[in-house]
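Reading a protein record of the kind used here takes only a little practice. An example makes this concrete, so a full record is given next.
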Amino acid sequence: MDMTKRVQQFFKAYVNEGLEKMEDPVIMVKQYMRDVKAEMKRMTQLIEKKQELSEMLRMDAEQLKETIAKREKQAKIALENGDEELAKRLLSNKHDAYEQQNRYNALFERNEEQLVEQKAELEQLLLKYQKLKERKLDLLLRTEAVESKRHVEQLEKQGIRRSQIQEDPFERWEERITEMERHQGKTHKHETLQVNQLVMDELEQLKAELNEKKM
């Protein structure tokens, strides 16, 4: 089965079966992405070889074209010199070169046609790969949303409210520390008042003692 049919079957299954019935859609998409990427690499290498072959055929055909012109010129010179036998051999060689040139040209044209088809197929693979990347992102987001919802529902079943899940624990700690500081402040103020009262009492006692001495 070629890559195009495999990808088409995957998307058909995706549409028909639905996300919830697929064991692991993200892993499946990643696997198809790897398959498409491998096929793209294989196709790219094949195209490079085809291009090398086209260049080789083109150069060989050009050389044969030069050979044909050269043999024709040599045959004319041979006839001018009265060497008809040599002229025949040169013209025969020219004919062989001409037939070989036609074969190379035919191979070149067929190879170029295949190149066009393979480049078009590679372009389709590139488009499919891009679509798979977009599909993977979509599935990741949807899967994360499903997992998040499932996690919250599980916690709620265990008696943990959503507000408790979203509550910032630092806020609770700050409230407790603030309350402790407030309580500490009240205690310190009360102790300060007690000390001040003791000082005033002692001051009054000293005043009384001084007054007694004066009398």
Summary: Residues 23-163 form a domain with the Helix Hairpins fold (CATH 1.10.287). The chain has two domains: 23-163, 167-214. Residues 198 and 204 are 10 Å apart (CA to CA). The two ends are 126 Å apart (CA to CA).
